Amino acid sequence: MTAPTLATPVTDDDHAQGPATAAVTLVLYGDYECPYTRLSLHSVHQLQREYHDNLRFVFRHFPLEEIHPHARAAAQAAEAAGLQTDFWTMHEYLFAHQKALEDVDLAEYARAVGLEPERFDRDKCSATVEIRVDRDLSSGTRAGVEGTPTFYVNGSQHDGGYDLESLRSAIIACLDSSPGSQ
Predict the structure, then answer these.
(1) Closest to 110 in 3D by CA, of 72, 85, 78
(2) Facing residues of 80 across strands?
């Protein structure tokens, strides 16, 4: 049986770090309230340091609202920050403060990262932001995501762990099979 694949290809609309021309694209469907997603980011950060321009990292929202009641609001906060060109700063801040994701906390984080507070509050509840989170959630569901963190390596669901060695092995396998590596 083949691994599930991304239902929605990575585009310029995705939140991505690293060049679009990277040999490997690592997509993470994550939840800001999920401790395992937070832990997986330690592996991602190390891989980004190791593989530089050979790795493109993409984050997509997959809030598990049934078990993480603040996850959707946090995803909307990240998107609202993104409208002020500060998605990644807020992304990291939310994971660093994962145990405090009430609305009052999110507003405090927006100020802490230098966002314009009134615009942040307005954008966080806007249709644009809600549609963006829903789009990621829907694409994850169509791709077979059932929990977080779920990784895709060059479009195929990673069936190993989210620890550094498992993800590194998947990246190496992609690099070894890419054109010009023989």
Answers:
(1) 78
(2) none
> CB-based contacts of 165: which residues, under 8 Å, 6+ apart?
none
By the 8 A CB rule, do 158 and 152 touch? Answer: yes
How many whole angstroms separate alpha carbon 13 and alpha carbon 35? 26
Low-confidence ranges of the chain (pLDDT < 70): 1, 179-182
Fold of 15-177: Glutaredoxin (3.40.30)
> Which residues are within 8 A (CB) of 66 and not within 5 positions of it... i.e. 6 or more apart?
none
Q: Where are the alpha helices (DSSP H) in the chain?
A: 35-51, 71-82, 87-96, 103-112, 117-124, 127-142, 164-177
pTM above 0.70, yes or no: yes
Cβ atoms of 50 and 168 closer than 8 Å: yes
Using CA atoms, how far residue 10 sits from 58, 81, 96, 125, 155, in Å, is: 8, 21, 26, 25, 9
Domain residue limits, the chain: 15-177
Helix (H, G, I), strand (E, B) or coil at 86: coil
